[in-house]
Specification:
Layout (H helix, E strand, L loop, with lengths): L5 H10 L3 E3 L16 H4 L6 H14 L5 H5 L8 H14 L4 E5 L7 H18 L2 E5 L3 H6 L12
Parallel strand pairs: 1-2, 2-3
């Protein structure tokens, strides 16, 4: 991935459903309920009821408390960890083969970081996808196995 041209990377990301998220405060559209975000319900040829059922199922998979309540909540009404789980659910809706997690635990306390990392690892195993973690946090790097690549000054 690191040696690909921008054009080739874009082509692969479209073909392989590559997904990326980094800042939960940018969670999609702030004036739209979490359950109605385009990225969550953008499922091919589904009815509104099917989309809602799928979204609630994704919210349950990412262990959001009270998925029905979260479905009808605005992003600003959620905690940082809950927003991160919604972001993960949005990424999982696309069934990616590769998930690029750019700073997935930034601004979360250590306890929430741990649960988010465990959740992502469990989802990775159950969905059989690859994950690329991008972070400056050495503690996060230590928990992301089996392989790590460290860059210093861009090398």
């Amino acid at each position: 991935m690191l040696k690909l041209s921008c054009r080739r990377y874009a082509k692969i990301s479209r073909q392989q459903n590559l997904d990326d998220f980094s800042r939960t405060h940018d969670l999609a559209k702030p004036c739209i309920y979490c359950g109605y975000q385009d990225e969550v319900i953008k499922l091919p040829k589904t009815t509104d009821a099917e989309a809602k059922a799928r979204t609630l199922s994704l919210f349950e998979q990412v262990q959001l408390p009270s998925p029905e309540r979260m479905y009808d909540s605005y992003p600003h009404q959620l905690s940082g960890g809950q927003k991160q789980r919604v972001m993960i659910a949005m990424a999982m809706a696309c069934k990616p083969q590769i998930l690029v997690a750019d700073e997935p635990t930034t601004a979360l306390d250590v306890t929430v970081q741990k649960t988010i990392l465990e959740l992502m690892r469990d989802l990775q195993r159950s969905m059989g996808m690859s994950m690329l973690f991008i972070t400056h946090d050495l503690g996060v790097i230590a928990k992301c196995r089996p392989r790590n690549c460290n860059n210093r000054k861009g090398k």
